[in-house]
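User: Hi! I'm working on a homework problem where we have to compare a predicted structure to a textbook description. Could you give me the structure for the chain below?
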Amino acid sequence: MKNRRESVTAVIPVRAGSKRLPNKNILPFGDSNLLVHKIRQLKQVRNVDSIVVSSDSDEMLEMARNEGVLIHKRALEYCDEKTKTFNEVVENVAQNVEGDILMWAPCVCPLTSVDSYQNAIETYYRIVANEK
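Assistant: Happy to help. Predicted structure tokens:
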């Protein structure tokens, strides 16, 4: 009997307070912005079962809702780059988002291809999950 395939949840972490380039996640990019571009890109990846945008920004969470993906409202202390370490941020997201496998997919990497994401998932299944 074949084991059930683990579900893959793509997490797009965004926040309101960017220091170097304010609102970078929602500045114009192509025909939308970085956040919407990443959501639409991840929707094309086979084996991504769900997409969650994790943010403190109501505006960005509304954009995610409008694109039909799930949201995770993060408390400000998990978004300010001072209060919590990156590991604590990831742990907080992992505790509040459903999925067997969480794939961190920042929208500030807009040129990562759909094929690259798909290859990463397939490599995970082949090597880490020991699937043949």
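For your comparison, note the following. The chain has four helices and six strands. The chain has a mean pLDDT of 90. Good luck with the assignment!
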